[in-house]
Structure formats: C-alpha cells, structure tokens
C-alpha cells in the first residue's frame, strides 16, 4: 500500500463505545501528546475522563449547573477549562477533580473556550456575540481584552501564537492579528460552527450550516477547497483533519461519518458511509499523534472510539 493510501485510511472499526452520559454529548477532546485519555462534556452537566484504550471511566467532574458545550486542555494535561450554559468559564485541576477558578463576565451561554499555547490565557466565545480574553496569572476579574465585532453568537475560536480566529452565526470568520492590531473578516454566507487550523496555521477548516466545509487560506481569505455530500443544516457538527492532515473528517446530522481527500475534495469510500450513531454527530476529533484512532461524539449520548484494522 502506498504512503498516500495509508494516510487516506479512516479508522472505521469500532474499538469501544463510551456510554455513561445522559443526553447529548456536545464535545470530546483528546489529552495532549501520545496519551489515550478523553474528556467529554454533555447535556447532563457532567464532564467525564476516560481511558480510550480500555473504555473505562476514570473520573467525573461535576460543578456545571447547565449543559457543557466546550472543553480545552492545557499543554501539560494538568488542567482544563470548560464552558456552557452557566455563562462562566470553569478552570479545573485534573488530579484533584475540583474547580480552581470560575470566571464570570458573559451575558449568555459560552459556546467555546480555548487556551493559548502555554495555557496562561483562556479565550471564551459566547451567545452574547463577544469574545473575552482572560489572563490566568492575574488576580483581576476583568478580561484583558473584549472582541465585540461579531453580530451574532460566537460558536468557535482558535488562539494562535500571533492571532485569534473566531467564527460566528453571523456568517463571518474573523482573524485578529495581535501584532499588527488588524482585523480581517471573511463572509461565508451561512452560520459558522467550527474552525480548525492546520498545524502550520496557514489554512483553516471552516464548517457552516449549509452542508459545506471549506478550506480557507488564512492570510488571504481565499477558498482553497470545498467539501460536501454530508448533511449539516441545523446543529454544530465539528469537522477535523485526519492523520497528517491528508484528509478531512466530519460527522453529520444523519449519524454518518464522512471523509474527503484534502487535495481533490473527493469523498473517500464507502460513499455514502454507514450510519454509526442514532442521532447527530456533534464532534469529531482525530488523535493528535496516533494515525489509527479517532473519536466521535453524538446527541445519542455516546462517544465512540474508532481504530483502523486491516479489514477496513
């Protein structure tokens, strides 16, 4: 098998199903590095830590009073932040399982939280149309910056080394250049629900509620590719890159997992893919280092760990 064909293999064999959540699972994040640990958050207000290899639940984090919508993990895996309907950012210590800080300031539910690279700053994007940046080393309860350009709910964001990228229901992807103090806004015409950059931060994978996933040049805003065939019109279905960024992967509202070749945007076989969840697939994430593993989270209350086998 050629190297390019290996890169295009999608982990399609179900390794284990994680089923302790009650109600929709909204987010599933891998730990950083080679570890096989997963943090999941859901409608039942809980965050759960799992061993992906064994399929066992390690710990439950309870403090949220409303559904959990977003989780971000620090570079050393010692802490994480979460957000949801509480209108506050929750900071957690993994070892003790308790919150170390709660940051209030938004006027609506917080759809997304993301650390910067060294987890000294956390950014939060809200239903109130703002993004707020919080310095975790400071005692101040005030944000160090508030981004107010969005005209509707902020659903997704990414904190880079020199820029912040946000996606809003108003149909815009906004890129804030922190060094130059400049803002570029790209209008995509439909609500933006997820935006995932490539590792070199040159391109951005943007999911919108018109059943399109677009690859966009981050410096010019030019569309480089367009991935279609899946159904995504009403809910956040987070797309991701496959191993080595050779493919694009996304679950849809029919419970199917789709995959495309990054370069020619062709759907990888089988097409159409089989239905693997009973409801919407809300989140898809490939393991950061292992080419043979990915996870999907669904409104059916399950998180599934997928691996590649020779019979796929």
From TrEMBL:
Pfam family, any one: WD40
What superkingdom does the record give?
Eukaryota
According to the record, where are the WD repeats? 18-60, 61-102, 103-144, 294-312
Q: Which terms are listed as keywords in the entry?
A: Cytoplasm, Repeat, WD repeat
Signal peptide extent: none
Q: SMART domains given for it?
A: WD40
Task: Please give the biological process terms from Gene Ontology that the record holds.
Answer: mRNA splicing, via spliceosome
Cell inner membrane as UniProt keyword: no
- PROSITE patterns, per database record: WD_REPEATS_1, WD_REPEATS_2, WD_REPEATS_REGION
- Protein's cellular compartments: Cytoplasm
Principal location listed in the UniProt entry: cytoplasm
The Gene Ontology CC terms held by the record are:
catalytic step 2 spliceosome; cytoplasm
Q: Which family does it belong to?
A: Belongs to the WD repeat MORG1 family.
Write down what this protein is called: WD40-repeat-containing domain protein
Q: Which organism is it from?
A: Collybia nuda
